[in-house]
Design brief:
The chain is α+β, with helices and mostly antiparallel strands. The chain folds into two domains: 317 residues, Naphthalene 1,2-dioxygenase Alpha Subunit, Chain A, domain 1 (Alpha-Beta Complex); 116 residues, Rieske Iron-sulfur Protein. The protein has 13 helices and 20 strands.
Length: 444
């Protein structure tokens, strides 16, 4: 495990309740205590860079989407082809929300539905109805401008920060941006976008996807019936690179077969099949098409994965799919602090975003994007639309298994006598790294 040291700050830090003092122990109260959730609301979410939307949600000038976190609403607006703005969603007159959900501001004007005040897409006021009734100081252009968040783009996503004094996005994403750059997230487009409301703390839900340690027991289709002594967790990603910003990613795996007694070809094929039927995201129709073609050929079992990747890139070249070169410095999953997880493979990825559901510390909004690098000739895809909330039982099997365990965990943290969750420094390093960064925000 590689840990990048962060320079110590000279500023004194305030005491944090239920702080991480031992990297192997996470206090259970962090997942349900109302005061801890209130501190996150006051000190984490208003100051951390967070993914507000994908760029393909706002493809044309005037398009907007609303991002909500706790009781805050932010409008992300496409100003022009190259510029995106993020505004606090309140009219400067009497605080009416200027937009709800997703839509378009026609004619380049943001119009208040209450009294008709208008703003240009750059946030400057363009019209005050009956302005003669207001004093000159009320009509000062700077006072009338929409209040902005910091905004930046990375990985085909729009990130916002409500704190004008926060460090820029490039600084906040140091380390993880370089690690994930070869994967080609900026080329991916949405296949589907769905969400579920889980009765669990947002961190509890997030952490289910920040380790592969659970796969052996939680996902029989992926562990293929292996017992613990027959399952090699390190072959799935048991070593991590953790960054000071709270981000982390799994390092390249050993290349060994995780399940004892299986050939490389058998494991690879069954793993892809399980992901295809169990997620409809990590592996897709095109990977199944390529794999099926290889099954009709006589290929050495140990060489099957390399034959698959060779066929994948040959197919992509012929189909006009701009796959990036194979990534060699990152593995199959990564955490972007505070609330994004990515699981990339084959020019596809699953992306998770988890947020508190209002002010309830034991409810969260869990969103899933299935994204893929399309063929160049496909043109611009339709603007993605959020589906759901979809009940747990209606999700593909692997998602369903994870959600059920998250719900069971949240139930368990209330058990009397359970003071701490005990974590592995080898297999669950991403989780502790993220908690420590949360503590830094809460201590400010």
């Amino acid at each position: 495990m590689t840990i990048h040291a962060e320079p110590r700050t000279a500023a004194p830090l305030a005491p944090t309740p239920f702080a991480i003092t031992d990297p192997s122990r996470v206090p259970a109260q962090r997942y349900f205590d109302p005061e801890f959730a209130r501190l996150e609301k006051d000190k984490l979410w208003p100051h951390a860079w967070q993914m507000a939307c994908r760029l393909d949600e706002i493809p044309r000038p005037g398009d907007f989407t609303e991002y909500q976190i706790n009781d805050q609403s932010v409008l992300v607006v496409r100003e022009n082809e190259d510029t995106v703005k993020a505004y606090f969603n309140a009219c400067r007159h009497r605080a009416t929300a200027l937009g709800n959900g997703t839509g378009s501001f026609h004619g380049g004007q943001i119009v208040c539905p209450y009294h008709g005040w208008r703003w240009n897409l750059d946030g400057s006021n363009s019209y005050v109805y009956a302005e003669r009734g207001f004093t000159p100081k009320c009509l000062d252009p700077d006072l009338l401008r929409l209040r902005e968040c910091q905004v930046g783009t990375l990985f085909g996503m729009v990130f916002i920060n409500m704190d004008p004094e926060a460090p820029p996005l490039a600084e906040a994403m140091a380390g993880i941006a370089e690690a994930l750059e070869p994967i080609g997230f900026d080329r991916m487009r949405v296949r589907w976008w769905r969400h579920v409301i889980l009765p669990a703390n947002w961190k509890m839900a997030q952490e289910a996807f920040m380790e592969a340690y659970h796969v052996m027991q939680a996902h029989p289709s992926l562990s293929m019936g292996a017992a613990d002594e027959d399952y090699n967790i390190d072959a799935l990603g048991g070593d991590f690179e953790c960054f000071p910003g709270g981000h982390a990613h799994a390092l390249p795996t050993t290349g060994e077969v995780p399940v004892a007694g299986m050939s490389m070809a058998d494991y690879f094929i069954q793993f892809n099949n399980a992901l295809y039927f169990g997620t409809d995201a990590y592996a897709t129709d095109r990977e199944m098409f390529i794999q099926q073609g290889l099954l009709e050929r006589d290929i050495d079992e140990d060489k099957f994965p390399m034959a698959f990747f060779g066929a994948l890139y040959e197919y992509a070249q012929g189909a006009g799919i701009p796959l990036p070169p194979p990534a060699t410095n990152t593995s199959g999953y990564a955490h972007i602090f505070p609330n994004i997880t990515v699981l990339p493979a084959y020019g596809n990825s699953i992306i998770y975003r988890v947020r508190p559901n209002g002010d309830d510390p034991e409810s969260c909004v869990f969103e899933v994007w299935a994204v893929q690098i399309p063929a160049e000739e496909d043109g611009e895809p339709d603007r993605p639309e959020l589906e759901g909330p979809i009940p747990i039982d209606e999700w593909p099997q692997i998602f369903k298994e994870d959600y059920q365990n998250i719900v069971a965990q949240q139930k368990g943290v209330h058990t009397q006598g359970l003071d701490d969750l005990l974590l592995s420094g080898q297999y669950e390093a991403m989780i502790v790294n993220s908690h420590r960064k949360i503590d830094e925000y809460l201590a400010r």
